Amino acid sequence: MISRVLVPMDESEMAKRALRFALEAHPDAEIVVLHVVGEPSSMMGGAAGLALADDTEEAAREQASDLFERVHDIAAESGIEVKTDVMAGHPARAVADASEEFDVVVIGSHSGSLADRLLVGNIAEKIVQESAAPVTVVR
């Protein structure tokens, strides 16, 4: 029986589809939506802001707040409450690490643009390879 489901989320339509799938397929499970903010570097705009923040955890939560509002709206359509969490780090590594505490991970296959599909598709592939829990990939 599946009692805990991890749904990594970004702003993509595929991630929203993954959340809707998780809500439909596992309505009785605890669903935790995880947003991973990239590790701070000079090449990453949003993540670079984390490096400059006094409280990086609070800054990461602030960056994720709009996304989490949409997550709660999607969950409300199904009449299900979800929990949210945010982490800083490399997305595939962070999700794989978090997967140890879940029965299944439900992820979107990729984002919209070609560049996003290459990057996020690659992240989805790494999660499938490294996850401690079974992974469902939603298209």
Automatic annotation (TrEMBL):
InterPro entries: Rossmann-like_a/b/a_fold (IPR014729), Universal_stress_UspA (IPR006015), UspA (IPR006016). It comes from the Archaea. It holds the Pfam family Usp. Transmembrane segments: none annotated. Residues 1-139 form the UspA domain. Belongs to the universal stress protein A family. This is Universal stress protein.
